[in-house]
Amino acid sequence: MTSETLEPGLDLPTRTEALESLLVERGLADAKTIETFIGIYETQVGPMNGAKVVARAWTDPDYRARLLADGTAAIAELGFKGPQGEHIVVLENTPQVHHVVVCTLCSCYPWPVLGLPPAWYKDSAYRSRVVREPRAVLAEWGTEVGAEVQVRVHDSSSEVRYLVLPERPAGTEDLSEEELAALVTRDNMVGVTKVAPPGARS
């Protein structure tokens, strides 16, 4: 392999490592900076942050009110802020309304609380179909929404990103905030799934 080409047929981790080496070799990136960002996204940024936000909202009514009034500020209270998180609106799922999030133009996403967007979120099929037939898409995720429930689709943009505050499942009244956070997944906070009650997750 030379500094001019990447050999075809290499697996993704090898290609990623080779690309990193090229960038460092040409002075376009610093190895320590790359390692710092990798560490941040492995340990500090990701769905575990959003899960903590959700668990706090479920257990603290005052925090929940602040979260729904100004998501960005309330999320920052827990130390989660930064690029792609400058303006986050929090949408509360209820027995009457189910919210689901998409970015129809690209893949705008609230990085500080959800990390990097998954491949399916960026896929053109999801981006188009969830707008046209949200109930069908939700059903494919195993999420059944009754006819009496409104389904609202929210289109993220570079100006506004959304986080879904899912419904708290039954049977969690005695769980601690930490135990509640462990139930919450990225997909719950995008709105394509509901939070499974304790013992129901595979």
Question: Would you mind describing this structure in some detail?
Answer:
With 202 residues, the protein is mostly helical. The protein has 2 domains: 12-43, no CATH class; 47-190, Nitrile Hydratase, Chain A. It is 45% helix and 11% strand. The relative contact order is 0.15.
Q: Output the CATH class name of the largest domain.
A: Alpha Beta
Instruction: Give the CATH superfamily of the largest domain.
Output: Nitrile hydratase alpha /Thiocyanate hydrolase gamma
Instruction: Enumerate the spans where pLDDT stays under 50 for 5 or more consecutive residues.
Output: none
Using the coordinates shown, work out and report the CATH topology of the largest domain. Answer: Nitrile Hydratase, Chain A
CATH architecture of the largest domain: Alpha-Beta Complex
Mean pLDDT: 89
Helix content: 40-55%
What spatial order of strands do you see in the largest sheet? 1-4
Query: Which secondary-structure class do the elements indicate?
Result: mainly alpha
- Outline, from the CA principal axes? globular
Provide a count of the helices.
11
What proportion strand?
A: 5-15%
Q: N-to-C SSE series?
A: HHHHHEEHHHHEEHH
Largest sheet geometry: 2 strands, parallel
What is the straight-line distance between the termini?
43 Å
Radius of gyration from the CA trace?
Answer: 19 Å
Count of structural domains: 2
Task: Give the helices and strands, then pairings.
Elements: H1 12-25, H2 31-43, H3 47-59, H4 61-69, H5 71-77, E1 88-92, E2 97-102, H6 111-114, H7 119-122, H8 124-132, H9 134-140, E3 150-155, E4 161-165, H10 177-181, H11 186-190
Parallel strand pairs: 1-4, 2-3
Helix pairs in contact: 3-4, 4-5, 8-9
